[in-house]
Amino acid sequence: MQLQNAISQSISQALQTLFNLSVDASQISLQPTRKEFAGSFTFVTFPYTKQLGKGPEQIGQALGEYLKEHAPEVKDFNVVKGFLNLEVKEAEWLRLFKELMQNRAYGQAEPSGRNIMVEYSSPNTNKPLHLGHLRNNFLGYSVAEILKANGHNVMKVNLVNDRGIHICKSMLAYQKQGNGETPESSGIKGDHLVGKYYVLFDKAYKEQIDELVAQGMDKEEAKKKAPLMLEAQEMLKKWEAGDEQTVELWKLMNSWVYAGFDQTYRNIGVDFDKFYYESGTYMLGKERVEEGLQKEVFFRKENGSVWVDLADEGLDEKLLLRADGTSVYITQDLGTAELKYNDFPYDESVYVVADEQNYHFQVLKATLKKLGKSYAEGIYHLSYGMVDLPSGKMKSREGTVVDADELVQEMIDTARQQTEELGKIEGFTPEQAQELYHTLALGALKYFLLKVDPKKRMLFNPQESIDFRGNTGPFIQYTHARIAAILRKASEMGIVAEATSFEGVANLHEAEQEVIVQLVNYPEVVKEAGNLYAPSVIGNYAYELAKAYNRFYQEISIFNETDEQARNFRIALSAMVARLIRESMGLLGINVPERM
RNA sequence: GGUCUCGUAGCUCAGCUGGAUAGAGCAACUGCCUUCUAAGCAGUAGGUCUUUGGUUCGAAUCCAAACGGGAUCACCA
Q1: Which residues does the UniProt record annotate as the domain Arginyl tRNA synthetase N-terminal (predicted)?
Q2: Which of A51, A243, A328, A431 stands the most exposed, by the fewest C-beta atoms within 10 Å?
Q3: Could you say which of 1.10.730.10, 3.40.50.1360, 2.40.400.10, 3.40.50.300 is the CATH number of the domain covering A410-587?
Q4: Is the minimum distance from the CB of A537 to strand B below 7 Å?
Q5: d(CA A194, CA A106)
Q6: What's the whole-model pTM score?
């Protein structure tokens, strides 16, 4: 970056000196040179032809000659049409490399003083996590890490949806058919056990609907009138009224689910600084609604329901409180927003929630603004696309949902199988092998889900996503393991590759230079990923870095190099690549192995 | 129907604030392991960047429209 700035500065000077044209250096943009031409940076001269009344080649030629003479970084140049390609001196690349290697906090931005809250995961407590949740969890965790690397003060929170009709469905089915089954007695993980009863409810409920329809009732009506649905609603009312027995069962079943979630979270390596529970926040929302009525930014309809008119924001009227005074989804979000802000006065509050809720978040933000809440401005909906299967949309009702725990286990099995096939498991203790499989499995899965732009809907193909070759997590992990082997060997040989140990290196191979270019880019990449809330930017970078290194690894020998300085440089270069692979993968929540 | 969003190789995806002959991976084909881990490297083949118009020196990228997917517009969450 500073290299680009320096060159831009020189170009600005050149334009002034040669053509008497004043252009600020910040206005001069350089782009990476396409690989079929010599050079590292390219300056496009087309935009200046009119003002200067000269041809693009002519301008490029004149600038190139000036830069070669006056810019200390520029080694040579070539002009192709309106493109001035600049080659940078090898000494300059080496200097940059030494500099970044000595910077212990390389890639970590200065503290920004900004507080950012990141809410993610936010599960319902009536069933286990599925593939869609995995994208959410990986995204949320990764974005939080990326924001930290950008110098922000980050708090990760999980808002658990622990109340509502869906939980009552599981509870009801359990009451009827549970026979006192527990996770201990059945050996079923708590969230799966509760999910089992949710499915049982749904099955029986469907049967009732079919029956009613067979009797001639309209399907929509049957859905509302089915006895089981009425019972579930009754149970919800009892819960809201604090009925002891209902609350007791609710607590018991939720505790099973939490134990299960806890296990899954630990297994997939995500964590939270704080949990919020909707049962603990939904009442607060009603206070905000009351506040809005007093401020006269909300209004009450004849039947008693409360609304906000967001027409001036290009949105509709929105219900905030039902006629019977009970809260709806957005009511509790109004309360939770305030609670969050009181706990952690944020500059920004990120909600990692699927794009089906885009409208909801527009409404939430607009409504809080109407209430005059200053923190409304900081609300940012990190909206991500749904995960599709080759068979189409995931539908829990049709049983096409991919269970998170099962998927992770399948990935681990595949990792084991692949590793054994390749015969790469010699010298591992069983525990180490197990750890490796886990690292590879999650690396493959996380990378697969994070390499795609979050905003885009994506396809999860079970066959491809468990691939360990090509543009995958394990490919990058493998590159790290290779370097680790080199570093072990260097260490055995007593080589310490410090900046001083290769000061005499004069020429660089092309492959070496390409690796340095990648290394130099890293801070910019972290910044961009932060600005865009996009782990995919980091993922693409890690892949490019690993690819550049593997090219180098293939073409250039390290330990057969007779020039000690050159050898030391290559070891240092390798160490730095390993470090940035570890860092960047860490930003994705992916661990890297020492051996594989 | 209104609003929002997406459309790039057979498949899955990159392509930054407009720049050169649009790039990866998978799948197909060809080479490279007595030399630091072949989960690798090098190469061949594969494209009307959905279409049409506009902006300009220049458009996959910006604007408009059309076509085709998806989401949403509940006293559901």
Answers
A1: 1-88
A2: A431
A3: 1.10.730.10
A4: yes
A5: 46
A6: 0.96
